[in-house]
Design a protein that fits this description.
The chain contains 19 helices and no strands. The protein has 417 residues and is mainly α.
């Protein structure tokens, strides 16, 4: 039992501290593979020493000091192999960082390193799936096996993505730095896209037996909070954090006791996390105060906040939501946004007003094979009293869905028409 307790404690410390370790080692070594390897070496050293010596008072400091000492040894070896015999004392930055107590580490330095690592992991040169995998590995401390389980993919597939991503970063010689002001908006957008991709996969799993994967939502929220702490004056960062907090507040109400999906208008709002809603509202207020009115994440957060303000489903301000979707569509045109606007218009003004808007989307090839399009079509047809067509639309939506729980919910709606 003692060994199990020790392993659990070490797992927790590792999950919390591995991003800091890798970020600091990456800055020291300029080599992502070596940084990860030495961070793992520090973990192995803890597994060897802590059972005999006990858990140190500050386990994070122990891991950081151990990792940095090994990094200095590696730097010394590199110098020797390169035929350079300068004393390591000429490298005061790293020598000092080891002897300083971790408690007195300059948190700004650590924060800067984490931010640099996040921008490296989310570099636009990498495909989106590789950015997601690398971010979960480096910034969330998830193992390859854990990432593979989360996305229902073979472990070798995830391992290959990570290896290819590291190779691409090395070949491109991507610098370990926060982009300069001119390049920051594009690069930050890439970072936010990755975090939101992770959150969305947790909130509404694209494949598998489960309606949600809450662990992924938690990891995305953790990244969002880290980003907000490092970039507290960024409206897009605060907007994304607000959006995730508000959406995550509904997680407990999105399934019933059997794990079946419960749709938004049918949820028991007493099960919503109102403290988390308050955090989301506070982040949204800050984002708006910073001038983020037209940012895509701020607008989506404002939509989520409209739902959060309604203590009962019938109190939802659908007219306001329709207006926000219209604004979002003008800022970031997307057929998915337009589809969501159709739903809001139907709620606010009725199915007869929304139907022509939906018909216009049927010719958009980007929505071909998109299950929610058929689900919305089924909804409107049911409201219009065209039951047979509605039933067929729900059945088509179920056939297109890759998620078992979503298929069940769609087939149940077909049967209920």
């Amino acid at each position: 039992m003692q060994d199990e307790a020790l392993q659990r404690r070490l797992d927790t410390v590792w999950r919390m501290e591995s991003p800091r370790l890798v970020a600091r080692l990456m800055r020291m070594l300029g080599d992502l593979d070596s940084a990860e390897e030495l961070a793992q070496d520090a973990l192995v050293a803890a597994l060897e020493h802590w059972p005999q010596q006990g858990i140190p008072d500050n386990p994070a400091a122990w891991l950081m000091t151990t990792a940095q000492r090994r990094a200095i040894d590696l730097l010394r070896q590199r110098r020797l192999h390169a035929g350079k015999h300068e004393a390591l004392a000429q490298e005061p930055e790293w020598q000092g960082s080891v002897v300083r107590d971790h408690e007195r580490e300059v948190e700004d330095d650590i924060g800067d390193d984490l931010l640099r690592l996040l921008f490296v992991a989310c570099h636009p040169a990498l495909p989106a799936d590789a950015r997601v995998a690398l971010t979960l590995r480096l910034l969330c401390g998830l193992s390859t096996a854990e990432i593979a389980r989360a996305f229902l993919l073979p472990e070798p597939t995830i391992a290959q993505r990570i290896v290819r991503a590291k190779r691409t970063l090395a070949e491109r010689r991507v610098p370990f730095e926060v982009p300069r002001r001119k390049a920051l908006p594009q690069r930050l957008r890439s970072v936010l896209e990755v975090v939101y991709l992770v959150f969305n996969e947790g909130y509404a799993a694209s494949h598998g037996e489960d309606w949600m994967r809450p662990a992924l939502c938690e990891e995305a929220l953790r990244l969002g909070r880290v980003l907000a702490g490092l970039m507290p004056a960024s409206a897009p960062v605060l907007g994304l954090l607000a959006l995730m907090e508000l959406q995550a507040s509904r997680l407990a109400a999105r399934t019933d006791a059997q794990g079946a999906a419960v749709l938004l208008m049918e949820q028991d709002r007493g099960r919503w996390d109102w403290l988390q809603i308050g955090r989301g509202q506070a982040a949204l207020e800050k984002a708006l105060a910073l001038g983020g009115d037209d940012d895509i994440y701020v607008l989506q957060a404002a939509i989520a906040e409209c739902h959060a303000r309604a203590r009962r489903a019938e109190q939802t301000d659908w007219s306001r939501i329709a207006q926000l979707y219209a604004r979002l569509a003008s800022v970031a045109p997307s057929p998915v946004v337009e589809l969501n606007r159709v739903v809001a218009v139907a709620r606010a003004q009725g199915p007869h007003v929304a139907w022509p808007l939906l018909q216009a989307l049927h010719g958009d090839g980007r929505l071909h094979g998109y299950a929610p399009l058929e689900a919305v079509r089924g909804d409107l047809l049911a409201q219009l009293g065209r039951d047979d067509e509605a039933r067929a639309a729900f059945e088509r939506a179920a056939a297109l869905s890759g998620n078992a729980r979503e298929r069940e919910a769609l087939l149940a709606r077909a049967a209920a028409v």
